[in-house]
Write a structure and sequence with these properties.
By secondary structure, the chain is α/β, with parallel strands linked by helices. The protein has eleven helices and 21 strands. The chain folds into three domains: 32 residues; 208 residues, 3-Layer(aba) Sandwich (Rossmann fold), CATH 3.40.50.300; 169 residues, Ribosomal Protein S5, domain 2, CATH 3.30.230. The longest helix has 18 residues. It binds thymidine-5'-diphosphate and magnesium ion.
Length: 459
């Protein structure tokens, strides 16, 4: 491996950056102090032009006189995306969409670009991972062949900018930012320095041209965006596209959003015709539920600001190993362990010799404490074989003393339960009145809650 040690005659203004971890260094060194990797420091291109002090290009204005016209979002036409973005893509903004390979990022953005092109906003789709004919084939299958949708398969930054000049789009999708490279930079495509510099340049161009730029970003196995975190600082909006690959369900969230809140959740289903927005996710999650089965409880979770009703299922089986399994899917195994300890110590229900599996149906995550009561009831129901009533929704945090605690935004959760026709809600004593048609069953602790739904009959 050759080193990239620069000559000593370089201007002192240069700085160096590690192409592995992204740490900066004022002078070149053989080894990065950030990650201890060897030969990873590369020189950064920094402008040595100093501007003389004079009249600013854009003078400061009183804040009340700044118009908000520039930041009015353009609806994309993909309703669930617009919901997450709070209206649509803002001209001149840069949005990073992260997600695991195969989750549907390209599909989502092709559909988005096509929908925008269809409404008279020229859209440029830059594909670097798939060839142009491949993307065309997909667009045809998706019914996304809009007149004003332009396709190019170049990855060099100058080409990207040339396409921007030629097409003058309202929106440009770059799929993916990791494959764009600037030939003027020494580092290889995909290296941290390249990704960061190219993203920075695209941010500048987006601002200057008023184009909404959407960058696709790969995520690493641990869920972080590949490349330095600084990529997230550069852009205006970071969206995360998630889902269980074995399920058709896809969830879109804003992790960062300069033009609005990050509270909204977009829900899609991957179908043969691409991604389809799910208007009523609770109904979808509950579609496969079989009432009258022991070990199943419906809980209202809040994802972003959106209440969702999901089914929690528990299964218990005699263990064959010294340390019984406690496995949660959609719930945290450590939280499950805590709830089992509370059941054991405070309620006298022991799963000591049993393997315990708890899953949240549909690939949804119910990691908030509000799910505690539902998880505990599902376990007890599975143990006693007594089903929880099918028209009941359970919601509450369980404390270490076995007490039930209030949860955030319970009114929204109960409203969702009432909307889907649930007649009873099992809640902490302090919970507000549920909507009309819904009866509250109040319990101070887990023991009372178990008795209130008749799970102690065989216990
Ligand atoms: P893709 O958008 O290529 O994912 P990413 O860009 O995040 O890597 O989507 C890949 C998966 O989506 C692929 O496994 C097939 C599936 N898919 C469908 O089920 N229906 C469709 O209409 C399309 C286009 C893809
Ligand atoms: Mg892709």
């Amino acid at each position: 491996m050759t080193t990239t040690r620069p000559r000593s005659s370089r201007p002192r203004r240069s700085t160096f950056r590690c192409s592995s971890c992204g740490a900066g260094a004022p002078v070149w060194a053989g080894r990065c102090t950030g990650c201890d990797e060897w030969n990873t420091l590369v020189e950064e291109r920094t402008s040595s032009v100093t501007r003389s002090v004079g009249a600013p290009a854009t003078p400061a204005r009183p804040i009340a006189e700044v118009t908000d016209q520039d930041v009015a979002p353009m609806p994309t036409g993909v309703a669930e995306l617009d919901r997450v973005l709070g209206g649509g893509l803002v001209p001149g903004s840069v949005t990073l969409v992260g997600g695991e390979p195969g989750i549907g990022k390209s599909t989502l953005l092709l559909q988005t670009a096509s929908a925008m092109a269809g409404s008279g906003r020229p859209a440029l789709y830059l594909t670097a991972e798939e060839s142009a004919p491949q993307v065309r084939g997909r667009a045809q299958r998706l019914g996304a062949l809009a007149d004003q949708l332009w396709l190019a398969a170049d990855t060099a930054l100058p080409d990207v900018l040339a396409h921007l000049d030629a097409v003058q789009p309202a929106v440009m999708v770059v799929d993916s930012i990791q494959t764009v490279h600037d030939p003027e930079l020494a580092s290889a495509p995909g290296a941290v320095g390249q990704v960061r510099e190219c993203a920075q340049r695209l941010v500048t161009e987006a601002r200057a041209r008023g184009v909404a730029v959407v960058l696709v970003g790969h995520v690493t196995k641990d869920g972080g965006l590949a490349g330095p975190r600084v990529l997230e600082h550069l852009v205006d909006t970071v969206l995360s596209f998630e889902g269980d690959r074995h399920h058709a369900l896809r969830l879109l969230r804003a992790v960062k959003h300069r033009f609005g809140g990050t509270g909204e959740l977009g829900v899609f289903e991957m179908s043969d015709a691409g991604l389809v927005g799910v208007e009523d996710p609770s109904a979808l999650f509950l579609a496969d539920r079989r009432t009258g089965e022991a070990g199943s409880v419906v809980i209202p979770v809040l994802d972003g600001g959106r209440p969702l009703l999901v089914e929690v299922q528990a299964l218990l089986a005699p263990t064959t190993i010294p340390t019984p399994r406690r496995q949660g899917q959609g719930v945290e195994s450590s939280r499950l362990g805590m709830l089992l300890a509370v059941l054991d110590q405070r309620v006298g229900v022991s799963a000591a010799n049993l393997d315990v599996w708890v899953t949240v149906a549909g690939g949804v995550r119910a990691t908030e404490p509000a799910a505690d009561l539902g998880v505990a009831l599902a376990v007890v129901s599975a143990m006693t074989g007594v089903p929880v009533p099918g028209d009941l929704v359970a919601c509450g945090e369980v404390g270490l003393a076995g007490e039930l605690r209030q949860v955030g935004r319970i009114d929204r959760r109960l409203a969702e339960a009432a909307r889907l026709g649930f007649r009873r809600v099992l809640v902490p004593t302090t919970a507000p009145e549920p909507p009309a048609g819904c009866q509250a069953i109040r319990a101070r602790g887990l023991r009372e809650a178990i008795a209130a739904v008749g799970l102690d009959r065989h216990g």
